[in-house]
Amino acid sequence: MIQQRGNFDWMLKELDDGVPGIEMIVVLSADGLRIARHGGDPDAADRVAAACAGLQSLTSAVAQEIPDSDGEMKLVVVEIDGGYFYLMAAGANAYLAVLADVRCEPGHMSARMRDLVVRIGAHLTSPPRRNGRQTV
């Protein structure tokens, strides 16, 4: 079970309202389960969350190869025809993903995401799971 203290849906809406071009915001666990979303449909958010689990694992593996790196993924920005994809570490075993169109300026988005992570990170934990069950 994913634990979260308080409801931060309004914070996701605030990010959406403050940055033009956002299509979908997803908060997910490290193993790819959707915790929360704003925009988009639930099935699409689930697919994004699952894909993000693989991407964060891949970037953490690459980070291991950088001297003096702690091996942890902080932020990934992918430019796609028609927009951008952002993935940021957001707390213990949790991540914040945003899909946005071309109106979104990457520097502004990453700064706003960092602000949101500071606010939600302390209220969000996703304990590791083994065989589909939460480990303590």
From TrEMBL:
InterPro entries: Mycobact_SerProt_Inhib_Rv3364c (IPR053141), Roadblock/LAMTOR2_dom (IPR004942). Residues 9-100 form the Roadblock/LAMTOR2 domain. It comes from the Bacteria. Pfam families: Robl_LC7. PANTHER family: SERINE PROTEASE INHIBITOR RV3364C. This is Roadblock/LC7 domain-containing protein. It comes from Streptomyces cadmiisoli.
